[in-house]
Amino acid sequence: MKTKILALVLGVLLTMPCVLRAEEIEIQLMEVISMQPIGGDDPLDNPTQSGEDPTRPASFRATINGNLLAITKQEASIPFAQATVVNATTGGIVLNQQFTTSLSEQIGTPGVYALHIETAGGALVGQFIVQ
User: Which residues pair with 62 in a beta bridge?
Assistant: First the structure.
């Protein structure tokens, strides 16, 4: 009896379509503009050494999971950020939204996209693909 049930379950599993789960991929962010003063020997005067620069990539975490873009602000001292997503092929703006803590958005069309995150202290850019 157990072998008949096992064979039935195995048969059902083999006839079911295979569903691949989307994998969450971290979007690499790079600093493009910093309006913070950089200079001096004191680490507090140099945001790249002190970690106080709100435009550093570690200040934000951006991921793509299938077609879901998620951006989370990691740095509490940043009051808000503006996220812009542009379709790299068409140049069309897909998203242009201000957020305070996080942002989650479905990207409908497959393609290559550019992500631009701007704060009062500077800007970050990244690129991602929706399949």
Answer: 71
